[in-house]
Amino acid sequence: MTNSFADFDKAKMFFIIGSNMTEAHPVAATFVKNAVNNGAKMILVDPRRTALAEFATMHLPLKVGSDIALLNGLMHVLIKEDLYDKEYVKSCTVGFEELKAAVENYPPERAEEISGIPAETIVEVARLMAANKPAMLMYTLGITEHTCGVNNVMSCANFQMLLGNVGFECGGVNPLRGQNNVQGACDMGALPNVYPGYQKVTDPDAKAKFEKAWGVELDDKLGMMMPAMFDGLGDGKVKGMYIFGENVANTEPDITHVEHCMEHAEFIVCNDIFHTETTRFADVVLPATAWSEDDGTFTNSERRVNRVRKAVEAPGDAKPNWWIFKEIAKRMGQEWESNSGQEIWDNEVSMLAPSMTGIKFSRIEGDGLQWPVPDLDHLGTPFLHKDGCFTCGLGNFKPAEWTPPAEVPDEEYPLVLSTGRRLYHYHTRTQTGRSGGLNELLGEETADISLADAKKLGIANGERVRLSSRRGSIELTAKVTPEVQEGMVWMAFHFREACANWLTNGVYDPVSQTAEYKACAVKLEKVA
Amino acid sequence: MAESKLKLNGTEVEFAPGETLLQVAERNGVDIPTLCYLKDCTPTGACRMCVVEVKGARTLVASCAMPAGNGMEVQTDTEKVRTARRLAVELLLSSGHHNCLVCEANGECKLQALAYEYGVDAVRFSPPAETYPIEDDNPLITRDFSKCILCGRCVQACNEVQVNRAIGFGYRGAEAKIVTTGDRPYDQSDCVFCGQCVQACPVGALTEKKAKGKGRSWETKKVRTTCPYCGVGCQLWLHVKDNQIIKVTAVEDAQPNRGRLCVKGRFGYDFIHSPERLTTPLIKENGEFREASWDEALDLVAERFMEIKKEHGPDSIAGVSCARSTNEDSYNMQKLFRAVIGTNNIDHCART
Ligand code: SF4
Ligand code: SF4
Ligand code: SF4
Ligand code: FES
Questions:
Q1: Is the pLDDT of residue B351 over 60?
Q2: Chain B partners of A271 at a C-beta cutoff of 8 Å?
Q3: A422 — alpha (psi -120 to 50), left (phi > 0) or beta?
Q4: Is residue B47 within 8 Å of B151, Cβ to Cβ?
Q5: A420, B233, B274, B313: least buried by Cβ within 10 Å?
C-alpha cells in the first residue's frame, strides 16, 4: 500500500475494486464503514454484491475480467471532459500522451459493451471521482488474479495518477495483502529476482554486497517462479523441492496438474505444523513451531513491521523454521551466526536492506514501524510519494489494452467461475479448521449462483450440484444468492473436497506469473 | 476570540473545541470512572458513573456527554459526587444477578472494581426474580442478560465501531434487553462473531465461550503479538495460562487496528494446541512415514540436496517459501537457497 490503514476512516472518497474487504480484511472494512458513516463516498467495483455494497454510493457489478475496459472508460471521460488533474499530470508524471491515445479507444459506450456497466454510469462515476479529492483506491486479488493482472494494476495506478491522487494522505493505490506476511516474504527476498529489500539479483553491486555479507559466491541468473517450478518437476528439470508451510496441493490452480507434477519429484521436503494434502508428497517432513511459539516479525499491508512474540512452548520436538534452515546450511558446509529472530533481523536484515536500516527490535516493541525507515531516528513512512514526488522519479503512465480471460464461457461450459475467500476460514483451513467454533459457523463450501441461473437450471437453494470445468469436477451444495450476477458461479478454496482449484485454470499473467483464479469456464448440473 | 479555559479541581486548564469534560480530565491526568462510555462513540450518558460537580449546575452532570465550556468550574471527586457514584453502583448491582464468585468476568469486571472502590458493602435492593435465560447456542459467545447493566457499549461496538448492525436495545422498562433483529440467538442473526461486543462489555454479560473455566484474569499472562491471518496485521493480546492461549483480545489504541478484531483474529487461536500437530521429524520409507530424530532427518535432507546439486546443478532444486511465517524464517530460507544451494529458485505464494 502507498498509504496507511490510519487514513481509511479519515478519507472522504473511496474507489474499491476487486476487494471483498468485509470478508477478506474485516478490520480494514470497519474503518471504511466508519468513514462512510461520517459522510465519505464510496464507489465499489465488484462482480458480486458483497456486504460492502450496502455502504457504497454506487456499486458497479462489472463482468468478471473487464476491469481494464472500465478503468480505461473512466479515464476516457476524465480526459474528454477535461476533468483530470492537469497540474499534477504536468509536474509529476510522464507518458500522458500515450495514455491519452490508448484510452481514446474506450469511449463509455465501448466500456459498457465489455464491462456491462452502463455508459451513463461510467460518466457519472468519472465526474464524482474528479469532484472528490483525494480518493483512496483499494484493490485486492480481484485485480491481480487474472492473466492481465499486471495490466489491471497499471490501470489502477494510471487512474489514480490521472486524478492526481497519488502522494497524499487519504489517497494512493492500496493493494491489501491476502496473507498476514505476504509483504514480509517479498521484503525478505523470497522471490526469484530480488535479495532482501528489493535489491536485484541481476545488479552486480547488489550481488557483490550479498556475497560479501554471506561470504559466498552468488548466482546472478533469475530464478524460477512457482508455476515454472511445478512444471519443472513435471518435465524433470526440477528434481528436488523444499516446500515451507504452504499447502500447494490445494492453493495452486488445477490441483490435478500440480499433484501430477509433485508425484514426479525425486525429493521433496516440507516444513509444517500439520500434515496437509501437500506433505503426502514429501520424503521428509520437519515439524515446525507455529505462530506464538517463536519470536520474530510480520510486515502488514501498510509496510508496518510488527513484532510477533513467543507466548507458549511448541509441542514435542517442533523447532523454529529459521533454525531448521540454519541446521541444513550447516550440514551443507556453512555456519550461520544469527541464533534468534532478533539476531537475524538486527544483525542481518536491517544491515542489508536499506529501506529497513532504521528498524531494530528495540524500536518496534509497540506499534512497529512502516518502511522505508532509512535510519535509527526515522519515524517511518505512513504514505509514499509525498506530494506526488515519486521516490523513483516521475510517475509513469503505462496504458493497457483490455484482454479477455484466457478461458471464456462457451456452449459446453456456459458459466464463469470466480473465486475468493470467506469470512470464517483462511486458506486451506489448516489453522481455522482446527480452531474451535469456526467450522461450526461455516462447515462446508457452496457454489454461489444467481437467482436467474438457479431458475434456468432448476436448482433450489441447498441442493447438491456438480460443477465442472475442463480440468475437473466437484460435487457441492448450491447457494442461491442475490450477491452473484447471472452467468457467474462463485466459490472459495477452503475445503479440500469442494475446492475451487480442482476447476481453476492454470494460466498465468506473463509478467507476475499470478494465476487466473478469478475466471474460468464451468458448467453446473443438478445432481440427480 | 473566545477563551477555551476551565477550572478542573481548582486548576486552570485549556481545552479544545468539542472536547468533553471527561476528555479534558483524562488529558490532564484526572481519573473519572466510567462504565458506559466507549471511546470514539457517541456518548449515551446511561450509567451516571462519570458524574462531576459543575459550579452553577442544578444537578451533577455526566462528564462523558458534557462538552467543556469556557469558565466552567468542575470538581471531579467531592463527597456529593462519590455518593452519587456509590448509589449508581448499588442500583446497577441490584438490577441483576451479579454473583462474582462464579462469574467469568471476575477480576476483569468494571462494575465489581467500582463497587470495591466506592465501598459498596451490601446490596441494598434485592435482585429481580425473573431473568432472561443464558444464551450459548453458538460456539463463541455466551450471553447472560442477568448480568447486563444496559450500558449500551455492546450496541455501540457493533453499530458504531464495527458497523455490523447486528444488535440494539429492545423492549422497555424492566424488560429492556439488548437484542438482535427479531430477538434471535446470535447464530441466527446478522452477527458475524467479531466479538467486539464481548470486548466492550464491562461486566460478565458477554463472555468468550471458549475461555470459560480456563483461567482467571489474575492467573494469566498477557503477551502482545500480531494476528496470523490477513494482511491487516491487527495487534492482539494473547491471554496465556499453563502454556495455553485461553483467549485473545485486541490491543486498545494500537496501530493499525485500534482495538478491533475480526472473528478469525479473536477466536482462531487454538489450532496451535491441536493434538494433530506434527511433533517429530518424519522420513518416508516404502511409502510410509516413520519417526526420526532431528539429526537423521536433517542429515538426510542435506545429503539429498547435495547429491541432486552435484548431479543436476543447483537450478534443479526449487523452494516455495511461506507467506504466513515470520520475516526471519523467510530470510533464512532464501539465504539457504541463494548462499548454500546456489540458486535463485525461491518464490512464495504472494499470488494467492
Ligand atoms: S459479535 Fe460483532 S457482529 Fe456480533 S453482535 Fe457482537 S459486535 Fe455485533
Ligand atoms: S451486554 Fe454488556 S455491554 Fe451490552 S449493555 Fe449489557 S452490560 Fe452493557
Ligand atoms: S483480526 Fe482479522 S482483520 Fe485483523 S489481521 Fe486478523 S484476520 Fe485480519
Ligand atoms: S460513563 Fe458517562 S454516563 Fe456512563
A1: no
A2: 322
A3: beta
A4: yes
A5: B313
Place of cell 546443478: B313
B294 and A317 in contact by Cβ < 8 A?
Answer: yes
**Cβ(B149)–Cβ(B92) under 8 Å?**
yes
C-beta atoms of B322 and A321 within 8 A: yes
Element (H, E) at B317: strand B317-321
Q: Which grid coordinates are listed for A434?
A: 482446527
Which amino acid is located at B227 in the chain? C
B198-250 pLDDT per residue, tens: 999 999 999 999 999 999 999 999 999 999 999 999 999 999 999 999 999 99
Sign of CA dihedral B39, B45, B46, B51: positive
B10: left (phi over 0), alpha (psi -120 to 50) or beta: left
User: Average pLDDT in the A480-498 region?
Assistant: 94
Q: Out of B160, B178, B196, give the residue to mutate to test ligand 1, the one with the largest number of ligand atoms within 8 Å of its CB.
A: B196
8 Å CB contact of B163 and A302: no
Structure confidence at residue A99 (pLDDT): 96
Average of pLDDT values for A114-142? 97
CA of B54 to nearest chain A CA: how many angstroms apart?
A: 31
Instruction: Provide the pLDDT for residue A193.
Output: 95
Residue in A288, A318, A349 nearest the CB of B327: A349
**Mean pLDDT of the A248-252 span:** 89
pLDDT surpassing 50 at residue A187: yes
Nearest to B324 by CA among B225, B227, B234, B228: B228
Give the number of the ligand closest to the Cα of residue A23: 3
CA dihedral A223→A229→A234→A235, nearest 10 degrees, is -10
Determine whether the interchain pair B263/A367 forms a contact, defined as Cβ–Cβ distance below 8 Å.
no
Lookup: cell for A372: 522505508
Question: By C-alpha distance, which of B207, B215, B81 is closest to B134?
Answer: B207
Instruction: Tell me the C-alpha distance between A132 and A138, whole Å.
Output: 16
Ligand nearest to the CA of residue B47, numbered in listed order: 4
Q: Residues B173-208: pLDDT tens digits? A: 878 899 999 999 999 999 999 999 999 999 999 999
| pLDDT interval class at A178 (50, 70, 90) | confident
Decide: A84 and A162 in contact? Cβ < 8 Å. Answer: yes
